[in-house]
User: Fold these one by one.
Assistant:
Number 1:
Amino acid sequence: KAGVTQTPRYLIKTRGQQVTLSCSPISGHRSVSWYQQTPGQGLQFLFEYFSETQRNKGNFPGRFSGRQFSNSRSEMNVSTLELGDSALYLCASAPGRSGGNTIYFGEGSWLTVV
Amino acid sequence: GQQLNQSPQSMFIQEGEDVSMNCTSSSIFNTWLWYKQDPGEGPVLLIALYKAGELTSNGRLTAQFGITRKDSFLNISASIPSDVGIYFCAGQLYDSWGKLQFGAGTQVVVTP
């Protein structure tokens, strides 16, 4: 069973540009979440999608957005990049049910903003 | 930022020693999860706990879901060099599904 797949693995962008990251969840999983990891702030929740709808949202500015497709694959987008957006962006996959979800992470996309 | 208190922040141990770390929270969680992260990689799930008081093992790893549902601990027995990494606890509210609250991590260094 394939794990969570994220692309691209590494990327470098310039301030002011925008970036799109992609995530394919584990087969059968319908919940996809995104996290930002930085040395200073640790792992922070960005948003969660289920059945193509945003289900939860973290405390990030509107420059961070996402979407989910009918096959559960998800993308996140960051517009008008800032230096502080440099981070490891992690996608997480879960079955999507109440009462106990086991959540699996992808290897992440390393974003460097210069 | 972090809402879980995870301790210790780092541990330097000798190969063969046991390791213990814990997380506490002001929130009641429905699920506790423990992950290990190696440099440059995503967190790998070690153990998932779903019931208060539950004690679960995975090889040399043992984790428990605190009876108050506000804490959890992870033990590693007879540490080996590949146990090096950062260990994270994460709590999940009942209806949160993919949303986790993470501890700041415990960095484990194992010396031969």
Number 2:
Amino acid sequence: QSALSQPASVSGSLGQSITISCTGTSSDVGSYDLVSWYQQLPGKAPKLMIYDVSKRPSGVSNRFSGSKSGNTASLTISGLQAEDEGDYYCSSYAGTYVLFGGGTTLTVL
Amino acid sequence: QVQLVESGGGVVQPGRSLRLSCAASGFTFSSYGMHWVRQAPGKGLEWVSVIWYDGRKNYYADSVKGRFTISRDNSKNTLYLKMERRPPEDTAVYYCVKQDTMTLDYWGQGTLVTVSS
């Protein structure tokens, strides 16, 4: 049950696009199209932003998109806004358990 | 709308057992799997446990296996987590999370458990 690997931090300017990677193994990310992404704002609970690799829940901006290639999933945020600043976590269902990434702090410059 | 309200946290001594509760509303509780996920202060998310919609099966992270017990009472729309033999590393905010198909879609606001003698 090893954690998924994410960069500790990323940054981008207002209006730009950024991508956060999430690397697992052939036993988790590579085996299932069950990658989710969560946004956590300071002092708040995580919020689901992407599920099943690339699907957006109702109400989530289409500026958020997800993809996967092999053992690596990615979250792209386009048209960065100040309110996007926070922590982002990926997760993957792996049979009988769930793995999370270590989290990536997004700073909007 | 979906609401998940955790309770039962606080400052607890390492040797004492503790039971967290999560009151669910806004959806048919008995139809969904439920999880506990925790977050140590300043750290990332860590999955703890899952229980099937009917309570027949449950699974645990290696870090809590044998010490924590997840359960549910579908007649009361309530999820539980019993914690025993807690080292200081169990200090965290514990979130109750609803599962839809294979996605953790709704999270409670969390309850803070501080293990300290």
